[in-house]
Amino acid sequence: MSLIHATTLIQLLSFLPVTNKDSLDSSLRQEAEAALAQQDWSRASELFFEYLLDQPEDGDAHYCLGLALLQSRELETAKESLLEAFQRNTRKAESAYNLACCASLSGSPTEAMDWLRESIRTGNQQWPLAWYDPDLRALQHHAEFVQLVSPLQGHYRDFDFWVGEWTVFDATGRQVGTNSIQFVEGGAGLLERWVSTQGTTGTSMSYFDPVPQRWTQSWLTAREVSVASGGMEGRSMVLASRSPEGILTSRTTWTPLEDGRVRQHWEKTADGGKTWQTEFDGYYSRNEN
Q1: pLDDT, tens digit, 9 for 90 and up, residues 51-98
Q2: Nearest Cα to 132, choosing from 177, 78, 186?
Q3: 5-14, 199-208, 256-265: which has the minimum mean pLDDT?
Q4: How far is CA 163 from the centre of its chain?
Q5: Distances (CA, A) of 60 to 33, 82, 166
Q6: Are strands 175-184 and 189-196 parallel, antiparallel or unpaired?
Q7: Residue 6: its pLDDT value, please?
Q8: Cα(241)–Cα(252) distance, rounded to whole angstroms?
């Protein structure tokens, strides 16, 4: 927006009744938020800038403007808006994290590390995912960044043995379906797409949560939704589900075998884990390229 347009807008708003002015600001803010949600970074930047001409005290709007400018790679102006949000105590952890991204993209790794530490200090609990953020890729050769993030990298890689395109057989050797397991979000999660030989399907998302430091899997079909959590036990990934009362109801164990296959063993329990009944015992054979 040009300075002339900005000045004209201010002059026009000064003659509006307060109620109409407030209504206009609210409508403009909603339009700006919609553009941000649609990832229309250029439009969001224009609208938040226009909104802030009349609402300069809105720290959250400064943050949103900074985020849109960062995505548009207008790094210097993005830094100004994010710093304004940070100084107004608005989304301090997120503002600091995105200031780290600005510094990294600008070729200032030391400044980026300062802001990343500040983001952690002010409450960013998802900071281990910084390793997968392309905006921070320049820091992967920075010794402190590697030291800061690497202790959890092993956990993020726990389930890599399941990734691939598979044909699945039961214990008798009969094919029961196919399964595709792929990295998503830069390797931070695994997306599963299962298709049985009978045509039924299922999808899951598995990821390591750095806060409780455990793996979680959300499984979805047309008939059911379930969530399981757990981690590595020896060479196997073991994820268990519980009832709303916290009672153990099922567990699934994935084990890489010496011949390159993966075994998936799903069991249920009706007595809180005292006894188990096998529901599925599948063997994954990797498809040839």
Answers
A1: 999 999 999 999 999 999 999 999 999 999 999 999 998 899 999 999
A2: 186
A3: 5-14
A4: 19
A5: 11, 10, 46
A6: antiparallel
A7: 34
A8: 9
**Tokens in use for 130?**
């910084």
Q: What is the mean pLDDT of the chain?
A: 88
Token pair of 175 as six digits: 């094919």
Query: SS in 3 state form for the chain?
Result: CCHHHHHHHHHHHHCCCHHHHHHHHHHHHHHHHHHHHCCCHHHHHHHHHHHHHHCCCCHHHHHHHHHHHHHCCCHHHHHHHHHHHHHCCCCHHHHHHHHHHHHHHCCCHHHHHHHHHHHHHCCCCCHHHHHHCHHHHHHHHCHHHHHHHHHHHHHHCCCHHHCEEEEEEECCCCEEEEEEEEEEHHHCEEEEEEEECCCCEEEEEEEEECCCCEEEEEEECCCCEEEEEEEEECCEEEEEEECCCCCEEEEEEEEECCCCCEEEEEEECCCCCCCCEEEEEEEEEECCC
pLDDT at 9: 33
Q: What does pTM read for this prediction?
A: 0.55
Tell me the one-letter amino acid at 84: E
Domains contained in the chain, CATH given: 3-152 (1.25.40.10), 160-286 (2.40.128.20)
CA dihedral 62, 65, 70, 76 (to 10 degrees): -60
**CA-CA distance, 97 to 91, in Å (whole number)?**
10
What confidence tier does 156 reach under pLDDT thresholds 50, 70, 90?
Answer: confident
In this structure, which amino acid lies at residue 17? P
Strand partners, 35: none
Q: Are 98 and 90 in contact (CB under 8 A)?
A: no
Residue 77: what pLDDT?
96
